[in-house]
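worker-3 :: picked Aldo/keto reductase
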Amino acid sequence: MPGSIDRKRIGSDTISSIGLGTYGIKNYSKAFEAYVYGLTNGIDHVDTAEMYDMGRAEEFVGEVIKHVGRDGVFITTKMLPNRLDDREKIVRTAQESLRRLGVSYVDLYLIHWPNERLSITQQVQNFEVLIDKGLTRYIGVSNFSLNQLKEAVYGAKKTPIVALQVHYSVLNRVEVEEQLLPFCMSQKITLQAYTPIERGSVKDNPCIKAVSERTGKTPIQVSLNYLISHENVVAIPKAERIEHVKELIGAMGWRIPEAQMNYLKKCLQ
Ligand SMILES: NC(=O)c1ccc[n+]([C@@H]2O[C@H](COP(=O)([O-])OP(=O)(O)OC[C@H]3O[C@@H](n4cnc5c(N)ncnc54)[C@H](OP(=O)(O)O)[C@@H]3O)[C@@H](O)[C@H]2O)c1
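worker-3 :: tokens ->
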């Protein structure tokens, strides 16, 4: 299990710094073994969406949860923006997701990306119906700009926005770190970094490889450790191969030394 440096606050819970994404799974039976391994060896949250494989990814998470147990797994799912204009539609959509997941509630429900036809305030207030109905414990947003995030945070009436999920990796960091991260810190919002290893391609970057050689950690682990060394950041890489999941777990429980961190930032400029 990761030590306290890799337990991160989300709402009033704590979760491991690394979670598992579920977009683009190819071999579900192989993936089952990998996710069960992850969720019983130090990873305790999983990210999915109604959109992924047209609901199949949520069903897959349901199968894994049935095996490892609901308690102790923090489940995030996401709703498509075109549901957000009508509260009944939101509730019906969530009930379908929960049925696929085989659970009575999720821990975190995200707006997958903003609905451009509706004010942010209106869509967030509609989305809050999920809290009223007990279908989720927390709500958050994904793919929101800083201004959209601010409107969501200030527009939420009944419950705070606890999470922002965006593309954040060591190779895609400047905008996130300059704009989103400071606001998230100030509002106690957890930032969930998606595509955090750039689909595996971070391992070929010479700057990351150099830090890997100096720290004795793999380039994937260095790349993830860079992200989770920020206090309010968790990363949600996807891995359906068990050897990959083992490598992801090894990204937790240590920190890149300051000198290597400085070298990495300079080298990547
Ligand atoms: N909110 C949004 O709009 C949004 C958008 C994109 C993604 N997401 C979420 O974020 C998750 C992660 O993002 P992503 O799937 O786009 O990209 P990613 O996590 O950066 O990359 C996934 C790829 O990396 C490979 N991989 C995993 N561990 C590895 C390792 N140790 N060594 C080498 N390769 C490794 C995986 O291979 P194997 O699977 O073969 O093991 C898979 O092909 C998604 O699954 C999804 O849940 C959210």
